[in-house]
Amino acid sequence: MSQSLEAAPAASGAAAELVLVGDLRRPARLRVPDLPAWPQHRAEVDFECASSGVRRHTFTGALLHDVLMDARPRFDPARRKDRLRFLIAVHGSDGHHALLSWAEIDPDFGRAPVLLGATLDHTSLDPAGAQLVLPQDRCGVRYVSGIRSIRVDGGYSAWESRPPGPA
Question: Which end of the chain has fewer beta carbons closer than 10 Å to its terminal beta carbon, N or C?
């Protein structure tokens, strides 16, 4: 399905790659042609774009949850709540970022059908790169084009139970 970070070639001029990094047992590099290795889903979406109004598109691709589970996130699968501390940061080639919680995409919680889009309106997104697709969002601001990295992070410090103030 995906190449390990060590095994993937670093060829210049090649199709766009995205890297899966962070709290994962199997970090990886993926290209759009790799995405059909996972079950494909179709999403017909309408979302508001600040610059051009309502946009209507059809995307196909793999569920973000499926791809990330294959990378084996470092949570304890026997402890359902352990997953809730994980965040997912997506970075695009144009510098655009989006942040999701693991609970949004997890079938036991939000079950959002977030896609790594491989096609847009029946046209391959290769070589530009995969697109983050959030069919549940009314606004298109979390749609990230040309994904370059997805970081899974479960290691941030817990919040203190008391408000900050002088010691």
Answer: C
